[in-house]
Amino acid sequence: MVRATEGGAPLFQEIPASASGITWVHENAMSPNRYLPETMGPGCAFFDYDNDGWMDIFLVNSGPSDFYTPPKPLRNALYRNNRDGTFTDVTEKAGVVSAGFGMGVAAGDYDNDGFTDLFVTAYGPPALYHNNGDGTFTDVSARAGLGPDVFRGHWTTSAVWFDYDNDGKLDLFVCSFVEYGREHMMMCGDNKLGHHFYCIPRVFKGTPSLLFHNNGDGTFTLASQGTDIEKSLGKGLGVVATDVNNDGRMDLFVANDTVQNFLYMNRGKGPNGKTRWEEIGLAAEVGFSDNGQARSGMGVDAGDIDGDGWQDLFVANVDQEMFSLYRNNHNEDFTDVAPKNQIAGATRLLSGWGLKFFDYDNDGWLDLILANGHPDDMIDQYSQQVRYREPLLLFHNDGGRMRNVSSQGGPTFTRMFPARGLAIGDFNNDGRPDILIGNNGGAPLLLKNNAGAGNRWLGVRLVGVHSNRDAIGARITWSAGGVTRSRLRNAGGSYLSSHDPREILGVGQAEKIDWVEITWPQPSGRKQRFANLPLNRYVTMTEGKETLS
Amino acid sequence: MQWLVTRIVFVAVLCGLTNAANESPEDLLRGAITSQQSGDFDAAIRQYREYLKLQPNDARALSNLGAALVHVGRYEEAIPEYRKAMKLVPDMPAIALNLALAYYKMGQFQPAIEQLVKVHKAMPTSDQTTLLLADCYLRLGRDKDVIALLEPLAKRPTDSMAVDYMLGTALIRDKQPDAGQIYVDRILHNGGSAEALLLMGMTKMMVADFAGARADLEKAVQLNPNLPDVYSYYGSALMKTGDTPHAAEAFRKELETNPNDFNAHMYLGVLFKEDQDYAHALPHFERALELRPGDEAVRYQLATVHMANGNLDQARRELESIVKQSPDFTEAHVTLATVYYKMKRKLDGDRERAIVQRLNAAAQAKQPGVKEVQSGASAIQQ
């Protein structure tokens, strides 16, 4: 059952710019030549940059590049949460104005100083913004070893902070899309309308994605050299860090456009002390379609949708390819169960980007939101079945099986969007995860969640001490109403976007939550059980500390 | 083309009866012929069989028996009777034509073609034989053979819609839409017909105008729901425009009137497979393979179903055979690698995976067919 809303409000309600104060609009730089980067952004993020316990918003914009000179300066946007449903633009003060032709964003506290930092990907050099803890950021890319030289030849898209070697420090994986630039900039002939159109990425050469090891001193070292990550030429667009075989090491699932998806298994340290990555996408049956074809993978996510304690995977593709929901078979292979979950049929004519598993009604089961839009802005004029702007899709998890409930989502779910990035976060701290969507060449969409009336929840902010401070890789197990559930704290997921780091544990109608157990990631690995917990509020659980805050 | 075939069967059987009646005065045979002429085929079959016990080498009686069996749909029994007759009189095209028709009715187009080629050689001016042969080629997707066979016929003054239809179809499928359009126009010239709309729909499908094709094919279906292939193409258009439930319905309707339609079986199999209903997908793929023996696309689909059903060894054998025959069939290598991995044959899986990577790299190296942008892009360094 989809839980009703209070007062008959729609499940998700659009908060207009006039109410939120978010007036920033993405500039996609669309030109007659239809340069590919124009149609790929933007990403967005929920994150708490000032540690006030309220989710702020970051929005990525395009900017100057080798094919585009903005007629007026463009900038990203950082909106501070005013704790009353409105936001204030603090971009200039914070010093996160622009990183060139921006694509996406990954938020994470890489230096464990308690303040969340930002890595902004781009067509062109990406940027690492260190959070100074005083409301400002400093671009430390070069100092951190993440300067332009490192990324030459790489068009970076989604990125994720995670601790692959369990040393307690967040490392960085960056998806690299195709070879594109002055020497590889191509024009894909005239379409039926006599105009250039955005090239299908098939024509461009793939590139290896990049993994950086956090040295613990504010610098990073490229760590993918010689590994399967470097050997795998992909066209990476989406990434999620998760543990698909429950071995305590975070693996990576990467969606590639027009080439196979990659599943990099983290095999731990080899004899040379280096982490060994094994790419098993084909063997795991997540690399290709059921017909052995590479598809146009864009957004990805991981989550335990059937409550078996194993991470399932999701990947969105373009129209006619259908999206895939991969059930984890517990032996490093997967079965695509999208057809049996109303997902394949619903996505046949859609192109998916941002997406996320999230428990929108706090019944304890992970639901799913999909943000869609065709990459070709002229598609409406020569196709009657596919549209440039496409609807959002919402799926409710009915005890392990997804059901398309988009028609119950509210008026926003009847509208069409050129959606790209999607972030999940509870911006009003009501315990109901809200949605933020980055629209290509348009205003972002902020959706307030009204679902799950009567269902109870506990919001948990985990703070690692020996393990990484963001507690990426922690497993949260909780018991309520006679049901025990667990959730792995994954990192990344969606497309070009970053999410509220807090976990909301839905308990449905249960009167209380009996206990919550945290298995902190290595190097700690410690288990901590908390009891006598409150409901319907957020708490902070700190590694090794028995009391809540 | 069902109307065409029916007419040929009727002519072929009458010829057989006339000849048999002239040459066999025996009572048994007369009785058989009388029964056949009066439409009592079961009696005729019984009487021919009795007669043939006494006169087993009467080619005309064997042929007539075959014709009677065809009339009651017992094609598999008719074929050996025709074969025996042909052994006795190998140079009689009428028997070969009857044998071809039996194969045709069974949807065994390849052996039908083998007989029709002989008949066509013996009777090159027989338009009916030519059209039937062309129809068999068309059903097997041998579009170039259709074109070679029918183009001389099309140059002659003719009002044959069958020629225009088949030739137009073959040209469109052979990626010669402009040439095919001539025949569409010829059919249209005689008024808007289901045939013309079908061809227009097919043309639009080729250029990925699926919605346009869907509209034409919907009209074609309304005008003549019994037109062979019309529901099959309509189903394809529905499938491409996302309406898979109605696509499946259309394919089923095609199979009601045309149980030997390759595409309907193939796509219905694909739709069932997409729904992971492998039990229903399997017979459609199997039938499609019977219709086009050796078709790699069908064999590949069958292999994927075997794999999904856990019949790994069966899938492996089929896939190994496919990649041996077509070493550049990337999807087959992908699935074969998957099968090997499932069978815990990692080394074999890795070998196939390496082939996949090599093929993909080769395909990538052939990209792109695009020009570099000539524009005044700004000079900002990336």
Based on CA inertia axes, which overall geometry of chain B fits?
globular
Helix content of chain A: under 10%
Order of helices and strands of chain B: HHHHHHHHHHHHHHHHHHHHHE
> How many alpha or pi helices of chain B?
21
State the largest interface: A-B, 50 and 46 residues
- Radius of gyration of chain A equals 21 Å
Account of the 3D structure:
The complex is a heterodimer of chains A (549) and B (382). Helix content of chain A is 4%, strand content 36%. Chain A has five helices and 38 strands. In chain A, strands 19-18-17-16-34 form a five-stranded antiparallel beta sheet, with no helix packed on it. A four-stranded antiparallel beta sheet of chain A has the order 1-30-29-28, with no helix packed on it. Chain B is an all-alpha fold and 382 residues long. In chain B, helix 1 packs antiparallel against helix 4 (59-71), helix 7 runs antiparallel to helix 8 and helix 17 (278-291) packs antiparallel against helix 18 (296-308). The longest helix of chain B has 22 residues, at 2-23. Chain B is globular. Residues 1-24 and 369-382 of chain B have low confidence and may be disordered. Strand 12 of chain A pairs antiparallel with strand 1 of chain B, so a sheet runs across the interface.
Summarize the structure.
The complex is a heterodimer of chains A (549) and B (382). Chain A is mostly beta strands and 549 residues long.
